[in-house]
């Protein structure tokens, strides 16, 4: 679809060729390493992959200026179709010239389809999808879990989803066609097909039915995307990524990858619920089936071990709200783990968050000042720590990309993870 557009993906170096993993490393990974570098070209600039994409859910990275995101090295930002559809409305962003112009971000932008929020908020779980009512992570066979004390606000059928706004309770309808219409108005460079998000608690039978529903929705998304691309030919081309579901079933994940991989998508999103310990295995199931010449985006991860696992198994880009979310609770990232800035020991600590860190926060402010801001409940606290946490995450992935190119990926992984998870100490 993108052959005549300004969107493309150029493969770079492959991890298995530059780093030459040992037989033991390959065996531990469960198969051949799929990691690689590349360049995603969009109407608003290039993204060198692997890359971490900062999340600006409502057309803003919480508490951080777009200019600060650019300065710390972010290559692209992701916003959420569900939230922007409800407020201020996709028509407002369309009139403004698209997401990037609306939020004063000149670089590439992503929008996810809103499916995650429709399902998670619709079940009363807010920021995360519940895996089981009892808090466990093994399927129980239940297919309609709702958070305790909440009513179900989202109802799925084969045509789409009815849901109530979490803001005011108004009733809305999302179908594949409506999701495409909303995202075309939002105007991001990369958008995602509308899919049904399942959880680990859903039965095998429901996962199968849902996967087929998502496959049929993907076809409808492509058809509507083609129509809107022709209708809005005066607008920059928007790439469409298909989203793979299938929970933790190998046959379903591979089927989803084969089914969507055969369609005319510009790239792919790896979504759905999974247990952390199975992350690499599930990504590899997908990437082994997907076309090699199209980018893969992993939705919702940012922990250092998850990033390395995802990269070595073939994911190209990632997004997560965690760097700014934990920053608002006074947590900051260091090479030795995550640390809580509210500890009393930092009241008179006039050193930066991390010695030698070149981010704006570390080169201008001290732990003592930031400790004071949190104690005083000043908004600037979230801004300054968010800048540091985003810088840490963006640059960790940048380091991994450079390590693939120069053949030192496995050495970098061992050094970074050994230090980060070796026991947090004062930075």
From TrEMBL:
Q: Where does Zn(2+) bind?
A: 357, 359, 362, 388
Q: What is its EC number?
A: 2.4.2.29
At the top level, the lineage of the source is: Bacteria
Polar residues composition bias: residue spans: 19-28
Q: Where is this region: Disordered?
A: 1-36
Alphabetically, the GO molecular function entries are: metal ion binding; tRNA-guanosine(34) queuine transglycosylase activity
* Active-site residue numbers: 112 (proton acceptor), 319 (nucleophile)
Q: What class of enzyme is it?
A: transferase
Residues of the region (RNA binding) are 324-328
Q: What does this protein do?
A: Catalyzes the base-exchange of a guanine (G) residue with the queuine precursor 7-aminomethyl-7-deazaguanine (PreQ1) at position 34 (anticodon wobble position) in tRNAs with GU(N) anticodons (tRNA-Asp, -Asn, -His and -Tyr). Catalysis occurs through a double-displacement mechanism. The nucleophile active site attacks the C1' of nucleotide 34 to detach the guanine base from the RNA, forming a covalent enzyme-RNA intermediate. The proton acceptor active site deprotonates the incoming PreQ1, allowing a nucleophilic attack on the C1' of the ribose to form the product.
The UniProt entry's sequence similarity note says: Belongs to the queuine tRNA-ribosyltransferase family.
Please name the NCBIfam families in this protein's record: Q_tRNA_tgt, tgt_general
Per its record, how is this protein called by name?
A: Queuine tRNA-ribosyltransferase
Q: Which organism is the protein's source?
A: Arthrobacter saudimassiliensis
Output the lineage of the source organism. Answer: Bacteria, Bacillati, Actinomycetota, Actinomycetes, Micrococcales
State the encoding gene: tgt
């Amino acid at each position: 679809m993108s052959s005549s557009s300004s969107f493309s993906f150029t493969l770079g170096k492959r991890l298995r060729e530059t780093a030459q993993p040992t037989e033991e490393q390959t065996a531990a990974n469960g198969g051949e390493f799929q990691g690689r570098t590349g360049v995603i070209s969009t109407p608003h600039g290039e993204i060198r992959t692997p890359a971490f994409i900062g999340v600006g859910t409502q057309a803003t990275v919480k508490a951080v200026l777009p200019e600060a995101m650019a300065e710390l090295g972010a290559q692209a930002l992701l916003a959420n179709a569900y939230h922007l559809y409800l407020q201020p409305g996709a028509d407002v962003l369309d009139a403004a010239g698209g997401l990037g112009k609306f939020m004063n971000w000149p670089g590439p932008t992503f929008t996810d389809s809103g499916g995650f929020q429709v399902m998670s908020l619709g079940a009363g779980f807010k920021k995360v999808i519940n895996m089981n009512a009892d808090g466990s992570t093994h399927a129980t066979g239940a297919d309609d879990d709702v958070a305790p004390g909440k009513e179900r606000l989202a109802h799925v059928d084969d045509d789409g989803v009815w849901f109530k706004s979490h803001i005011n309770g108004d009733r809305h309808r999302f179908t594949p066609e409506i999701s495409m219409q909303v995202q075309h108005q939002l105007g991001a460079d990369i958008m995602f097909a509308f899919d049904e998000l399942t959880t680990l608690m859903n039965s095998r039978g429901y996962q199968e039915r849902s996967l087929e529903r998502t496959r049929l929705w993907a076809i409808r998304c492509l058809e509507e995307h083609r129509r809107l691309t022709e209708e809005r030919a005066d607008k920059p081309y928007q790439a469409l990524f298909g989203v793979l579901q299938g929970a933790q079933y190998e046959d379903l994940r591979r089927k989803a990858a084969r089914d969507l991989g055969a369609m005319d998508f510009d790239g792919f999103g790896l979504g759905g619920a999974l247990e952390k310990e199975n992350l690499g295995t599930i990504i590899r199931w997908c990437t082994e089936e997907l076309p090699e010449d199209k980018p893969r985006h992993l939705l919702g991860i940012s922990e250092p071990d998850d990033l390395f696992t995802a990269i070595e198994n073939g994911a190209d880009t990632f997004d997560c709200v965690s760097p700014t979310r934990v920053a608002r609770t006074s947590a900051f990232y260091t090479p030795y783990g995550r640390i809580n800035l509210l500890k009393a020991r930092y009241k008179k600590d006039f050193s930066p968050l991390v010695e030698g860190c070149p981010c704006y926060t570390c080169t201008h402010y001290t732990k003592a000042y930031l400790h004071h801001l949190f104690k005083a409940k000043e908004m600037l606290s979230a801004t300054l720590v968010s800048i540091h946490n985003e810088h840490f995450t963006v640059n960790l992935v940048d380091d991994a990309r450079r390590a693939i190119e120069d053949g030192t990926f496995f050495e970098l992984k061992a050094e970074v993870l050994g230090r980060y998870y070796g026991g947090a100490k004062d930075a």
